[in-house]
Amino acid sequence: MTGRIGIEALNVHAGFAQLSTAELFEGRGLDRERIGHLMMRARSIALPCEDPITNAVNAAAPIVNRLAPQDKERIELILASSESGVDFSKSITSYVHEFMGLSRKCRVMEVKQACYAATGALQIAAGYLASGVSPGAKALVIATDVSMVDARAGYAEPATGTGASAMLLGDDPRVLALDLGAFGAHAYETMDSARPMPDHDIADVDGSLFAYLDCLSNSFADYCGKVSDVDLRTTFDQLALHTPFAGLVKAAHRKLMREQARATPDAVEADFAARVSPSLVYPSQVGNLCSGSVYLALASLIDNAPYRGTARVGLFSYGSGCASEFFSGLIDEGSRAALAELDIAGRLNARIPLSFAEYTELLAENSRCLVPIENRKIEVERYRRFLDARPDGREPVLAYRGTEGYHRTYEWV
Question: 3.40.47.10, 3.40.50.720, 3.40.50.2300, 1.10.10.10: which CATH number matches 6-412?
Fold first, then answer.
């Protein structure tokens, strides 16, 4: 799909450990009948040697390391989105820039708007590339977060993941060619979730649910106001939505089909199975990746949907607080080949399962991940069995080894 602007490469890093949803429900004494509403199988669990920086680098490295030297040199813009910043001033992106060995002639920034931020960053980057001010330039956009939830989160705990999605943007969009100018936005201020302290998330679950659904309807309406002759049923061959948990996506799809197509329950169910469920295979194994979740859903769709030839994807991004966008792009059979090079499914399957007891032991240490501490030491070797389990074991990964004088330090393993 040359001659367009979009995603040239897409990778997802979802850590090295996982916990089954059933085991978490059992351990917390949650109502097992509600597992079906979440539509979750497992969630990624962070290790103490992982943080937003290692997640970002480990998602981006397989993309950057495969570039020819001249293409790597053309990365001129790096944007990282996160709700899990490690400093009030210094950006996560500065570490990514350093560990990727990228040109010093880069714009380097971190952006924040809850789970929407990566899409805002993608659109900013796409606009820069499409402007033509630097022909042939590329941009790296990374969405990275860690989970701060524990028993206080209730039924949100089984749905929250950890990890990062990384995207290389340019004029050879092998993964997704953006429909430039085809978007709809909707935003307003609301307190549906927040992270008022580095080690504590809060959420108004009902408020967030209603804000998500409201933003989907209104951002899609704005899209229709900018793009001619849009029909929800026929314009988009596939759909990928921000996925806090798969059950919410099913409810959102049902609402939009009723509003836009006056669809019967049977028609809604059939459409969900055909156009949406392929995007939920990976999210149901990982949990909510915050602003990376819609791109995890996109990767899942490309790897699992039975499309042929070129297909148009409608994407919806939502972030608490709140901001949202409905946009679209084209995939083709080359998209699946491009993702296959990075074997996202293989790396998800290689994560080591944790028992509930092992998980709860990790929580206390992980809760300190974002708290500013002058000096801290992490014994990386304690987690070597997790790091060595990855299928691409010959490719080193970055690990957090501690903080010295408030400066976070890392090592390649």
Answer: 3.40.47.10
